[in-house]
Amino acid sequence: MNRSPAAVALVLLGATFPLFLQATPRALIVTGLSGSSQNADEFQALAATTKAALVKRGIPADRVEILGGKASRAAILEKIRAATDTGASDEYWLVLYGLSGRAKEGEPAFQISGPRLTATDLKSALAAIPARRFVFIGTNDAGDYLPILRGPRLSALAATAPGEGDRPRMPAAWAETLTRNPSSDFLTIAARAAAAVSDEYTRSQLAQIEHGRLVDPASADILEPPFGVDLNAVHDAPAPESPPAGRLIGAAEIDVRIQNPKAEWEHQAATAETRKMVADARAVPNPENHAALVLAQRIGFTVEDDRTTDRSEFYRVFIVRNEAVEQWANWFLPQNPPGITSKLEVARVIQPEGSVTAFNPAKLPQATDPTSGTCTAMAQVFLPGARAGCVVEVGFRTRQLLNATLPHVSEWFPVQQSAPALATELEIRVPEKPSFRVALNNDPANPEIASENGRRIYRWKLGPLAALDVLPGDPPPQLWLTSVGISSLPSWEDFAAWYRRLAQGSDKVDDAVKKTAAELAAGARSRLEIIQRDFEFVSSLRYVAIELGVQGFRPRTPAEVLANRFGDCKDKANLIVALLRCQGIDARFVLLNRGSVTDVNFPSWQFNHAIAHVPASPKDGQPADLWLDSTDSVTPFGFVPPGDFGRAGLVFTKDSAEFKTVGSDAGTLSEIHDEWTLHQTLDGEWTGQFQRTVTGFAEDAVRRTFRGLAPTQRDATIYHLLAGLWPEADFSKPGVSDVSALGGEMRIHAALSAPSGDLPRIETPGFEYFSAPSRNRPVWMNDAQPLAVTQSLVLRFSGSPPKSLPAQWSADAAGQKLRVTWEKVDDHTLRRTARVELMKPVVPASDYAALRQAIRGWQHALKTPSPLL
């Protein structure tokens, strides 16, 4: 139906109403005082949902206003009275989301900042409007407004009956109903919302404690649900046959008609369309023999002015083999209202012969309970009958109110899937003001860019995308994965200024902090010794993350962390910076993206970790920068744990912030040194000792492996390690150093006996990535940190050792050095030394073949020549 919109919609915290507009449509949505941050988030989410639905109904986005709980009574009434220029054929909507209380003499009143907004206030303001008026009171005790508000040409819906003082479920049901059917009339939306509330109480097996009430505009009578509406006879206007040109096609355009609205699943006969869909899917080439093929995917992402996001996803997938069923026929939709809500639009399985099993979206299950800690809140959809040869179609929308603590929008999501995608349509919608950055990463395609109704729209049509086939040794996905980044952050300077304001006062120290700093520095012989003492002290404190609200970003004060003796990464970093500053050592707070990377050319929130930085001071005996990550309690001084090295860290000074590369200046080298001392018995067997010494990243890994193990578990772990190094040997008396003593050396040792004919192997982390004959992307070995591995093998023969020793072997490839040398120590002893120096542990794909060849040569040189044993 094509009609020119002409209504004014006024929304107060509590409700909104969709109408057919005819001249100058307008909407005002007011959210009242909340009483808690959770309520505030819920009201804001409802207001955003209502606005989006009213826009879909035909009201221009700039005509739908939202007023928050800090809006005054006078400001709200002024907005209502501004609609007095409407005509008798126009429509005016008023919606309230929030809480109700009582004014003088017990009159119901809407809770806002300052004087409350009473029912009499609303009646007076609405009476001056000549248009037809639609009001929704989405609060507790809402029914008490209706006797005061009722009058000719006014429809008013209350979420509750008089005297029902608990917070109602009706506002969420009403907003959802409006979203599903934005073009329906006011009475139908009210009746459907009331029915949804009743169904929800029935499903939850709870006594219904709220009952909506509605004022009839003709008789002014107050009605009970279903308000005179026969829902079985209601039929919505059909969706348009085709979407407007250029608009991203979504799952809502797929015509899956459920004949039985009470059914969860419905089996439907094959059609010419579904048979053709399956036939076309079978004809798609699959040269790499993937278990599934994504025939089409359509992804849309919208950022609203209030920073609510709306993400639409649709996937059409051909199941080639049954192993792909679990991946593509089980769907878990985020569902944690009011912050995150998902709406299922289509879910169906098209069988090989073309028949369909369709899920009724109205029967989307309730969210799982996340309080068990086993999962986040989600709604689970399992598609029945899926098997090889089927086509699966799933489409849904997810609305999310972004973290209000962050001042700007920062979003990132992948476009590639675990199966190759033949065709991809991607659409990003952002407000024109403020200015947004939108980037498609690791794909050369350029978008079509347009502007519509105050929105900047980016559209891509992408060709085939490879499967997201993660391999061992891969770089962080952000470096090679096709993905989308969205940010409203103007610059890194703006981000640094915001974070500095947020953290203001968190660096304050008290006498306890100063005393601890003095005690740690007492008797130290050098600057480095002081820094190491501070680092090991803070590392010994427990890691505990309590990141609620602003504490997800703002560090706790050093005094708090010291008193609690625990903290998260930013708390510990803040404490170590404070201790060093108290000792007169320059130290700085650092944000970085641990385990991933930060795109320094794309200002946005890309951080998940905090550490400390101590700039080099050669005159004080510190020749290189130090990066101190005390989070995990296992990292040795002078090194950084997995995920930190080589990353761009945003280093804060008093008045500025700049990116520096973590660990690039220290020149540290991680080492694994295995020493085997073997004695030959008279019958030719070997007995002896094994000892492994580790430093740096390798030491971190060993401490991480053994931390918290019981003695039996510890011994079993050592035996497992040694069995991989020398399967034929028998080991005894295993031991490992104290993993909690950071200042001590980390060793693993054991006694052994072994038959003749073989020698122990050498373990080189990262060499296992070179088993395939070729590779199309870089290899990251040892977390991209330089590493040296040495095996010192001392053989003491019962008689004279062989006179002829194997030739020395060496190779330099892709910046790495590999050596195998033999030497005669005395008349009974030989020593073999094998050493690998991985000074460039990030190996480009172009160097893969050369290094692989060198590794194979090195492994061959390690094989013991038969004359030797």
Give the SSE layout.
Blueprint: E1 7-10, E2 26-31, H1 37-57, E3 64-67, H2 73-81, E4 91-97, E5 100-102, E6 108-110, E7 117-118, H3 119-127, E8 132-138, H4 146-149, E9 154-158, H5 170-180, H6 186-203, E10 213-215, E11 222-223, E12 265-268, H7 272-282, E13 292-303, E14 308-319, H8 325-329, E15 330-334, E16 340-350, E17 356-359, E18 378-382, E19 391-401, E20 410-414, E21 424-431, E22 437-441, E23 448-452, E24 455-462, E25 483-487, H9 492-502, H10 511-521, H11 527-539, E26 542-543, H12 558-564, E27 566-567, H13 569-582, E28 588-592, E29 609-614, E30 626-628, E31 648-652, E32 657-661, E33 670-680, E34 686-695, H14 696-706, H15 711-725, E35 730-736, E36 746-754, E37 779-780, E38 787-796, E39 809-813, E40 816-826, E41 829-838, E42 842-843, H16 848-862
Parallel strand pairs: 1-2, 1-4, 2-3, 2-4, 4-8, 8-9, 13-21, 26-27, 33-38
Antiparallel strand pairs: 5-6, 6-7, 9-10, 10-11, 12-17, 13-14, 14-19, 15-18, 16-17, 16-19, 20-25, 21-24, 22-25, 23-24, 28-29, 28-31, 29-30, 31-32, 33-34, 34-36, 35-36, 37-42, 38-41, 39-40, 40-41
Helix pairs in contact: 1-5, 5-6, 10-13, 11-13, 12-13
Task: Write a short abstract of this structure.
This protein is an alpha+beta fold.
